[in-house]
Design goal:
Elements (H helix, E strand, L loop, with lengths): L10 H6 L12 E4 L19 E5 L4 E4 L7
Antiparallel strand pairs: 1-2, 2-3
């Protein structure tokens, strides 16, 4: 989520990590990060512009490739 500090370690974060879905069950969509300041909502890592993130737009949830289990 851009400019937001995630609530790291919450049950929702753990449920979403690597599952391909956000905590509400929406499918995550692979997109390239287009804005600086994007942070992974699972591990709080900065996601560089151009890196692939797995996102749920309705929930404003973003997951980095590492947390999604991608190489």
């Amino acid at each position: 989520a851009v400019g937001q500090q995630p609530a790291a370690g919450t049950a929702a974060d753990v449920t979403a990590a690597g599952s391909g879905q956000c905590s509400r069950g929406h499918a995550l969509v692979a997109i390239a990060a287009s804005a600086a300041g994007l942070k992974c909502d699972v591990c709080a890592a900065d996601v560089p512009v151009g890196d692939i993130t797995y996102s749920c737009e309705p929930c404003d949830f973003d997951q980095c490739g590492r947390c999604a289990g991608q190489p």
